[in-house]
């Protein structure tokens, strides 16, 4: 069965971002997975160096370390983040202690104790977690150096391992400082943006306070004007509109009472027309007044 890249990609994405975490928590989550991946590659390098070496138990030890790292990475992705992170550092301490004692001081495995002691501060919120790992790391380093003084190395890997361990330790510490610096800069930028927003809001409030009296005067004038328009509309509706309408209705009643309706209609038609025009003008005035009120409301 052929595995498509699109099917593998979601598995990699979960190492960079996890649903349900905040932005800052996701950054820590991603950085830890990157660190664990770097440690994984470091172990792969040693697997390559130890594959033909006798005895074979150092090679098997590296294989076991890889398996443990994979398991802890899965647990970390599944949400057991504090446990997985703490376990990774403890496992790394144990492995580095064994490597230091087996290969001796000249191999440089003990340099990593400094990185292991400092790195947890980037990945734990509780002081008890990173402080305990720091003290465990320092105590382990002192113990290893004591063992150096009473025993000889069991297996030497050559001078290049020292250079690799120095480079690897320096890289880890550099990445740690870079991550810390990036986080600090992000925090500073966020604070600066918040300060700018607060300053802008403060300026807006000051402008409003300075113009508050004029704003009240303008709004009061608008309210009074609105009330006058409503009063005008009420007057037109109650008096000026009803007057021509009442006259028209009265004329219609007179026409209805007359016996000669044709002659009566001919006499009253000009009067009806005049009152109808007056009523039409009044209705137009009412319409204009209502339109003005609606326009004022929209403003």
TrEMBL record:
The keyword Transmembrane helix applies. It catalyses: ATP + protein L-histidine = ADP + protein N-phospho-L-histidine. Gene3D superfamilies: 1.10.287.130. Residues 184-229, 269-296 form a coiled coil. Its EC number is 2.7.13.3. It comes from the Bacteria. The chain crosses the membrane at residues 27-50, 56-75, 82-102, 108-124, 131-148, 160-180. InterPro entries: HisK_dim/P_dom (IPR003661), HisK_dim/P_sf (IPR036097). Keywords: Coiled coil, Membrane, Transmembrane, Transmembrane helix. The keyword Coiled coil applies. GO terms for molecular function: phosphorelay sensor kinase activity. This is histidine kinase. It comes from Chryseosolibacter histidini.
């Amino acid at each position: 069965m052929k595995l498509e890249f699109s099917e593998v990609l979601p598995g990699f994405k979960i190492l960079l971002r996890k649903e349900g975490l905040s932005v800052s928590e996701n950054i820590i989550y991603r950085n830890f997975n990157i660190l664990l991946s770097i440690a994984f590659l470091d172990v792969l390098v040693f697997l390559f160096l130890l594959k033909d070496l006798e005895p074979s138990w150092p090679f098997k030890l590296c294989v076991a370390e890889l398996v443990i790292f994979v398991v802890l990475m899965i647990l970390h992705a599944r949400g057991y983040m504090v446990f997985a992170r703490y376990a990774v550092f403890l496992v790394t301490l144990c492995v580095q202690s064994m490597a230091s004692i087996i290969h001796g001081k000249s191999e440089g495995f003990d340099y990593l104790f400094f990185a292991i002691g400092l790195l947890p501060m980037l990945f734990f919120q509780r002081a008890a977690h990173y402080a305990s790992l720091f003290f465990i790391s320092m105590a382990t380093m002192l113990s290893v150096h004591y063992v150096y003084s009473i025993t000889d190395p069991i297996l030497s890997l050559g001078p290049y391992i020292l250079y690799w361990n120095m480079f690897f330790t320096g890289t880890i510490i550099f990445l740690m400082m870079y991550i810390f610096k990036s986080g600090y800069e992000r925090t500073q930028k966020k604070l600066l943006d918040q300060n700018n927003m607060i300053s802008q809001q403060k300026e807006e409030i000051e402008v409003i306070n300075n113009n508050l009296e004029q704003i009240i005067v303008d709004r009061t004038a608008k309210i009074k004007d609105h009330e006058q328009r409503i009063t005008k509309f009420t007057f037109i509706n109650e008096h000026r509109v009803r007057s021509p309408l009442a006259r028209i209705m009265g004329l219609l009643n007179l026409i209805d009472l007359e016996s000669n309706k044709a002659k009566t209609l001919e006499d009253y038609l000009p009067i009806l027309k005049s009152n109808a025009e007056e009523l039409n003008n009044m209705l137009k005035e009412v319409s204009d007044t209502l339109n003005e009120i609606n326009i004022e409301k929209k403003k």
